[in-house]
Amino acid sequence: MTKFLTSSLGKKTVMALSGLFLCLFLLEHLYTNVHLFFGDGGKEFNEASHSMVHSILIRIIEVVLFLAIVVHVAQALLLTKENSDARPVKYAVDGTSKTSDWFSRNMLLTGSIIFFFIVVHLYNFFVPYRVTGHVVGPEEAMATGGETLAMEVAEALSNPIYAIIYLISVLLLAFHLNHGFQSAFQTLGINNQKYSKVWKMASVGFAVLIGVGFGAFPIFFQLAKYIGFDALNWNM
Ligand code: HEM
User: Fold this and answer.
1) What are the chain's domains?
2) How far out from the chain centre does Cα 111 lie?
3) Cβ–Cβ under 8 Å, residues 232 and 39
4) How confident is the model at residue 4 (pLDDT cuts 50, 70, 90)?
5) Concatenated DSSP letters for 79-139?
6) Mutation pick for ligand 1 pocket among 176, 183, 191 (CB with most ligand atoms within 8 Å)
7) Is the CB of 154 under 6 A from ligand 1?
8) Is the CB of 207 under 6 A from ligand 1?
9) Mean of the per-residue pLDDT values for the chain?
């Protein structure tokens, strides 16, 4: 087992599994965020986020998620070093266009920017909600008039600088996934010659879903700000 995990294939497998696990988390995160569009003052979004804090299963998944990020980043650094030391070709899947070539060769760069964004994101939302208590759950907010997570998100995404950083990070994440998704299936041996077109299309589809899905939030809050309507309540 140790021999496998320290081999190149073992490291790639860990990379692929941690990457795919992070992809699952992105889908769940997108689903929760969609509640922000409901025009109910952020009620459903706050409740969905709050119910997660009290679920033992979600707490366990959260720990696995932190580990997956740490493992993914550590393996990324190891593999990139190994690749540059040993051989010029880094990936089993090569993009066909010049653009995808650039992104496939610069996974560590896009990954590092995504990592920086994850840290900023945690600092803005996870820390005030889960650590300092500056942001409170829906019931406490009703009782004390405190700030909810939806309010905190609305405030951050209404800030043009934060919105631009968010958009750039999401765009880079989409390109990271466009290459990473199909590469992961190749690593796991699920992607073969016959179905490579299908996996390529699935990768593009997933990358577009994540890019457009998450990108819609800063655009929506910025539009609301400039048009002058309350994005959480859908009124002027
Ligand atoms: C939500 C966050 C992320 C997701 C969903 C994600 C997803 C993926 C996936 C699916 C792969 C393909 C694995 C394979 O080649 O078999 C991958 C590869 C890669 N990721 Fe990420 N990633 C994320 C964040 C990061 C971060 C934060 C870094 C680094 C700082 C990073 C660096 C890399 C690198 C360098 C590779 C290519 C490794 C190689 O095969 O040589 N990723 N990522």
Assistant:
1) 2-227 (1.20.1300.10)
2) 11
3) yes
4) confident
5) HHHHHHHH-S---SS--SSHHHHHHHHTHHHHHHHHHHHHHHHIIIIIIIIIII-SB--HH
6) 176
7) no
8) no
9) 90
